[in-house]
Amino acid sequence: MWSQPSVSGSQSGCGQRWGSGVHALVDKVIRAPEPFVRDLLEFVLSGLRTFGRTLQLAVAAFRWLFIDIAKLRHPWRDTVQQGWFIVSVTAIPAVLVSIPFGVIVAVQVGSLTQQVGATSVSGAAGGLGVIRQGAPMVTALLLGGAAGSAIASDLGARTIRDEVDALRTMGIDPVRRLVAPRLAAMVTLTPLLCMLIIFMGVFTGYVIAVGFQGVTPGSYLSAFSAFAKMSDLAVAIVKAVIFGIIVLIVSCQRGLEATHGPKGVANAVNAAVVIGVIAAFGVNLVITQLVSMFLPQQVG
User: How many CB atoms lie within 10 A of CB 289?
Assistant: First the structure.
């Protein structure tokens, strides 16, 4: 007598193979994200470490700046040289950027106010746009793109030539010798650069509104004086100074940590510009929200 194979046994074997296959697939799905999670965690931790070193650099720069000024040991000659350098790379671009920026704001605001029949407030809208948001952000862009990149390239070149290590060997703090004078120059000149951009932007908007959009000079000036306050100018200058400090500290940090030769200097310059501008935009969002909460706009 011959016997047929057991159906239940074959089904049991198939079930076991199917179960083992499912368990293997589940293990692959669970274990697959591990490299991604590890890389993501390392990226976040690396960013936090970099942020911590940047904060330490900022604290050390301000500490040496205050100590040297109090003890009358601050290198003012280096500060003047760095200030002249910042002016030389940002003054002309500031004028060339603020003029078309003022034209764009005046044209857009004038077109809108003409459609709604409120040409009398075009001066207030355009002027406040330039003062509150335009001038500080243009200042940040110019400082990040011109001054910040130059500072990062200078310090990066010094770093890869071992000049910074030579200073440490001689007992000289690089932050005190290289960063503090640049910080003093940036804090001093950033308000002047912001006011230059405000003047050129508002003046350009006035010329466009009066000369090409039919707005009377008295109406433009009265609307501007009714809405614009000294607090708006003060907030704009404070924002510009904060943006300048952020750009400077980021540029110095990237330059002092440059590695791998000329390629590392190029990477430091690129990172300084991108990180500095993005950080300035993020801080601008926070400051704008705080100002809107505690200093609301008032007429009169």
Answer: 10
* Residue whose C-alpha is closest to residue 283's, from 224, 232, 234, 241: 241
Task: Tell me the residue length of the chain.
Answer: 300
Q: Look-up: residue for tokens 């640049």?
A: 182
Q: What is the pTM for the complete model shown?
A: 0.83
Q: What is the maximum alpha-carbon separation in the chain?
A: 118
Query: What is the pLDDT confidence band of residue 26, given thresholds at 50, 70 and 90?
Result: very low
Residues 121-155: tens digit of each pLDDT: 777 777 888 888 889 999 999 999 889 999 999 99
Placement of tokens 């109090």 in the chain: 70
Secondary structure (3-state) at 259 = coil
Query: Which pair of structure tokens corresponds to residue 219?
Result: 């109406």
Span 37-53, pLDDT tens digits: 777 788 888 888 889 99
Q: How many CA atoms lie within 13 A of 51 on its CB side?
A: 7
DSSP 8-state symbol, 120: G
The 8-class DSSP code of residue 257 comes to: T
